[in-house]
Amino acid sequence: MTRSKLNSDLLDLWRQKQWTVVFVTHNIYEAVYLSNRVVVMAARPGRVVADVAIEAAYPRTEEFRTSPLFNEYCRQISHSLAQAVKSSPEETPDTCADAMTDVFHVA
């Protein structure tokens, strides 16, 4: 089983059950693929630095993953993470890792 298959299964389950899902991930690409919203947080002190609406239709397909729109969302979120690290009052080697931990999305 691959991450791609698990992501597709999660989206299928979400559609069938119509649940609200809060999913925490370290992976920008996964967040964009699964989400209708990505919230990026900075570390120490924890705060929201970006709230990005992912305006792409469901079901999401491989076509979406390779689209310019998908790449633009990934670029925007990556930029937000970089800003979060720069604005962190405590510059440590773990700051970027902490910021990545706090990428999450709501589907």
How much is the average pLDDT?
Answer: 82
Rounded radius of gyration (Å): 14 Å
Main pleated-sheet profile: 4 strands, antiparallel
Strand order of the largest sheet: 1-4-2-3
Low-pLDDT segments: 93-107
How far is it from the N-terminal to the C-terminal residue, by CA? 22 Å
Outline of the structure:
The protein has 107 residues and is α+β, with helices and mostly antiparallel strands. Helices cover 50% and strands 20% of the residues. Helix 2 (28-34) packs across helix 4 and helix 4 (68-87) packs across helix 5 (95-101).
Which features does this protein show?
single chain; 107 residues; alpha+beta; four-stranded antiparallel beta sheet; globular
Written overview of the protein:
This protein has 107 residues and is an alpha+beta fold. The protein contains five helices and four strands; from the N terminus they run αβαββαααβ. It has helices spanning 3-17, 28-34, 62-65, 68-87, 95-101, and strands spanning 22-25, 37-42, 47-53, 103-106. A four-stranded antiparallel sheet has the order 1-4-2-3. Strand 2 (37-42) and strand 3 form a beta hairpin. It starts with a helix and ends with a strand. The model is unreliable at 93-107 (pLDDT under 50).
Topology, element by element:
Elements: H1 3-17, E1 22-25, H2 28-34, E2 37-42, E3 47-53, H3 62-65, H4 68-87, H5 95-101, E4 103-106
Antiparallel strand pairs: 1-4, 2-3, 2-4
Helix pairs in contact: 2-4, 4-5
